[in-house]
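User: Reviewer 2 asked us to show a designed sequence for the structure in our supplementary figure. I'm pasting the structure tokens here. Could you produce the per-position amino acids so we can include them in the response letter?
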């Protein structure tokens, strides 16, 4: 193993220093009226937001981030890809950008869970959260069933992680038939990150509990035809946290088509208000 690689492993693995993530500034006006940070879902990259960015006004700053293990960000094979690890890297990356405004963090799917963790750990960073298709599931309790859909979805994910080769083969098929964003790309290079993120961040999560306790404004968008989002959790969250609003759209899980139109309109109207 090269000396540089060994030093990097020691720096991040043993000294617990978060990774700096790959970022792309879609827009950087001189005097932005607002700043948006976009966090993609599992298996995607920051370019999964291209269609949303195209419909945004030009006077706002828009920053895309590749999560750890995806896109052009580092992909350490030893990392635990849970929301905590992702949030620490996102937090350090955002602090390095020296933003003059508190950003509105927009997260999709896994990115929504990471956004909640960022808000939990670094409450002074985000001004507001916009969560798209958050796969909130009730926390596991040893020896006790949580709920039929929660258990069923966890079992589905558990089966999926046992067949990484099939996930890689399914990726282009899902994109071809419009079941996934065009940036979904599960390959031999990132399938380990995909499986690790699936297990640590989605199967074994505390995001639903954490979101209830957050004090900042949270806007949630979810699809009526989304197979991996449990509506009752989102409705309950909005009921139990006065800072949360929930909007149901006639869409699926991915931010495509009508989802893009609704989300970009909301972000544009909110920025104007």
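Assistant: Here is a per-position design you can include in the supplement:
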């Amino acid at each position: 193993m090269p000396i540089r690689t060994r030093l990097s492993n020691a720096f991040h693995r043993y000294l617990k220093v978060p990774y700096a993530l790959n970022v792309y500034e879609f827009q950087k006006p001189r005097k932005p009226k607002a700043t948006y940070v976009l966090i993609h879902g599992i298996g995607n990259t920051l370019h999964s937001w291209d269609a949303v960015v195209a419909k945004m006004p030009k006077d706002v700053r828009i920053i895309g981030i590749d999560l750890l293990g995806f896109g052009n960000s580092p992909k350490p094979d030893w990392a635990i890809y849970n929301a905590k690890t992702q949030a620490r890297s996102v937090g350090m990356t955002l602090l390095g950008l020296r933003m003059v405004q508190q950003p509105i963090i927009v997260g999709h799917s896994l990115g929504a869970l990471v956004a909640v963790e960022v808000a939990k750990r670094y409450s002074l960073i985000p001004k507001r959260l916009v969560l798209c298709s958050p796969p909130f599931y009730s926390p596991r309790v040893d020896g006790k069933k949580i709920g039929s859909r929660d258990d069923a979805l966890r079992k589905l994910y558990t089966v999926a992680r046992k067949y990484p080769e099939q996930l890689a083969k399914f990726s282009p098929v899902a994109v071809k038939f419009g079941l996934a964003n065009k940036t979904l790309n599960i390959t031999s290079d990132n399938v380990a990150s995909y499986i690790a993120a699936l297990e640590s961040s989605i199967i074994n999560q505390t995001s639903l509990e954490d979101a209830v306790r957050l004090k900042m404004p949270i806007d949630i968008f979810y699809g009526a035809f989304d197979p991996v989002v449990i509506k009752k959790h989102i409705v309950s969250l909005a009921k139990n946290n006065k800072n949360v609003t929930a909007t149901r759209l006639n869409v699926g899980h991915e931010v495509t088509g009508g989802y893009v139109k609704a989300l970009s309109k909301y972000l544009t109207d909110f920025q104007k208000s």
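For the response letter, you might also mention the following. The chain has one domain: 3-272. Residues 3-272 form a domain with the Rossmann fold fold (CATH 3.40.50.1820).
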